[in-house]
Amino acid sequence: MLTDIVLIEILIAFLAGLLIGSFLNVCVFRLPRDLSVVQPRSFCPGCEKTIAWHDNIPLVSYIALRGRCRHCAERIPWRYPLVELATGIAFAFCAAAFGGFTLMAVKYAIFSAILIALIATDMEERILPDEFTLGGIGLGILFAWVVPMDPGIARLFLSRYLGPVWSSIGESLLGAAVSAGLIWLMATLYERIRHREGMGLGDVKMIGMIGAFLGLPAALLTLILASLLGAVGGLIFIFATRKQVSTYELPFGSFLGLAALAIAAYLTWPLHGGR
Q1: How far is residue 214's CA from residue 202's CA, in Å, rounded to a whole number?
Q2: Secondary structure (3-state) at 75
Q3: Contact 94, 147 (CB under 8 A)
Q4: Alpha-helix residue ranges (DSSP H) falling in 31-102
Q5: From residue 121, how far is each of 124, 129, 155, 239 by CA, in Å?
Q6: What confidence tier does 148 reach under pLDDT thresholds 50, 70, 90?
Q7: Residues near 256 by Cβ (< 8 Å), separated by ≥ 6?
């Protein structure tokens, strides 16, 4: 049962998620264009005028401006409020699942934020920035040291020799290396058989990041679920838009992100009395 203190922390986590989501929107727009995410201040892509602070409040400003730029009236993409809201909900979920502000909640909140940014970037630009994928692998391994992971394949062999902390790091490294290696092998075989690229290195690095955070078994589950979601979602989109199957570029990273969020939520919520 959630206490009043935990409920307050969940609310704070939601508000913090909205702010982080606003920053993620900056990253989604600027990183694929090799622009700094720090300078200059937020600006309208249409008229390039600087956005005032009161027009840059997550969700609130979008509603107040009715989804349009104050200066040029160009429509603000739906991606902006959706990323902000999704990040806020994800942060609140993590705080609720782990009983407030805990290291485990912080780990999964950061993991969720990375996934949401990658989903949006891949959907919009078909790019998975290294800042999130390779940086995420490093963060996943670091969190494995700070917050030991649940027993996995690596710990079955290493725990008696290295102890829980190093076994946790080993699980993170194994999850990153094996999952990335597996998807790289699949992509290489597909390219040699079909003579065209079916999956980019960004997807390889992204599944490695997921393995670093969740471990190998969860990364493999993510890969299976993402493949199913991608197959069904891709067919629906191709049918609805009448695009050619041979030329349509499936944003597989977006499906990886959605699957990883679902797997992470399933693995964490029941373990902490959230039912």
Answers
A1: 18
A2: strand
A3: no
A4: 60-64, 79-97
A5: 5, 8, 34, 23
A6: confident
A7: 118, 203, 206, 207, 210, 222, 223, 226
The model carries a pTM of: 0.89
Q: Which residue has the tokens 């993170």?
A: 172
In terms of Cβ atoms closer than 10 Å to its own Cβ (0-12, 13-18, 19+), residue 5 is exposed
- Residue 102, burial from CB neighbour count under 10 angstroms (0-12, 13-18, 19+): middle
The span from the CA of 6 to the CA of 76, in Å, is 35
> What sign does the dihedral 70-71-75-79 (CA atoms) show?
negative
Encode pLDDT of 137-147 as tens digits. Answer: 999 999 999 99
Give the domain ranges of the chain: 1-101, 102-275
Report the largest interatomic distance among the alpha carbons of the chain, rounded to a whole angstrom: 65
CB 46 within 8 A of CB 72: yes
pLDDT in tens, 123-135: 999 999 999 999 9
Write 11-16 long-range contacts (CB < 8 A, 24+).
Answer: 11/92, 12/95, 13/91, 13/92, 13/94, 13/95, 13/101, 13/105, 13/109, 14/88, 14/89, 14/91, 14/92, 15/88, 16/91
